Amino acid sequence: MKHKAVFVILLLLIGIGGYCGYRYYQDDVLPEKIIDETYDEQIKIFDRVKPEAQEKNLSNEETTDPLESAEEVNDAVVGWITIEGTHIDFPICQAQDNDFYLHNGFDGHYNNELGCPFLDYRCESDFSGFNSIVYGHHMTRQRMFADIALFKDKPYLQSHPEGTLTLNDGVHNVDFFAYMNVTNTAPAYHAVFISDSEKEAYIDYIFSDAVYTLNYSADELKQNDDLHLLLLSTCTYEFTDARGILIGIIE
């Protein structure tokens, strides 16, 4: 009788262990495997159509639109953001809302929630507005916009102070100067400015609420009549609905 009870308990433990292993595979291993495969597929598309690859394939011909190859895949592409020394090297799309590219990839198809970096629908598609807000997911293994969160540490920005924003009219340098850690409803996400006073108040807000700022003062930015800010935003996890925003000047 005693041996029978031990055998039953052993079977129960094996069953529980097997179920736990099954749940771990289904809930953790399999989803990560699917994300890996999806991400690899996206990267292959990016490598084929990113501006640098296009230029190498032009031979002696020239193009007036650096985004031409990307536009052949998706005419909703409005730019390409690159920060050397990071994983940030992605196309930027724009939809009629701020939901579509949270769930769909660069080709416009569902891609297991990797999404695609996208410009706020309220912003000017040519990045000519006062501020341009670009969103991207914070995924595991530093995928998508996860590297944005690294800029919370000032030394990281000091070692990666610039990026490039490729638009239809050419390549623009982006000079990064601030990092903010805010909620998803923070004033940083205001995108429509009617008066100069609103713009000045927004600049003051950045300098008062940023984790840090570098190289510029609020007064210097206010004196720039042709100021165009770029905000790169992703989820972070310091608190509920936390967002990290890297801010730069489009030159």
Question: If you had to describe this structure to a student in words, what would you say it looks like?
Answer:
This protein is of the alpha+beta class. It has a single domain, classed as Sortase (Sortase, Chain: A, Beta Barrel). It is 35% helix and 24% strand. The protein is built from seven helices and eleven strands. It has helices at 2-49, 51-56, 68-73, 100-103, 154-159, 196-209, 218-222; strands at residues 77-82, 89-93, 118-119, 131-135, 138-139, 143-144, 162-167, 170-183, 212-213, 229-235, 242-250. The strands form two sheets. Strands 1, 2, 3, 4, 7, 8, 9, 10 and 11 form a nine-stranded mixed β-sheet that branches. The chain has a two-stranded antiparallel sheet with strand order 5-6. Strand 10 (229-235) and strand 11 (242-250) form a beta hairpin. The longest helix has 48 residues, at 2-49. The chain is globular and about 75 Å long. The protein starts with a helix and ends with a strand. The model is unreliable at 18-30 and 56-60 (pLDDT under 50).
How many individual domains?
A: 1
CATH architecture: Beta Barrel
The description of the largest β-sheet is: 9 strands, mixed
Poorly predicted residue ranges: 18-30, 56-60
Kindly report how far apart the N and C termini lie: 82 Å
Kindly identify the CATH topology: Sortase, Chain: A
Percent helix, as a range, is 25-40%
Number of alpha- plus pi-helical segments = 7
Q: How do the SSEs run, as a string of H and E?
A: HHHEEHEEEEHEEHEHEE
Net shape: globular
Alpha-beta classification: alpha+beta
Mean pLDDT: 87
The CATH superfamily is identified as Sortase
- What percent of residues are in strands? 15-25%
Radius of gyration, rounded? 23 Å
**Structure summary, number of beta strands:** 11
Can you tell me the CATH class?
Answer: Mainly Beta
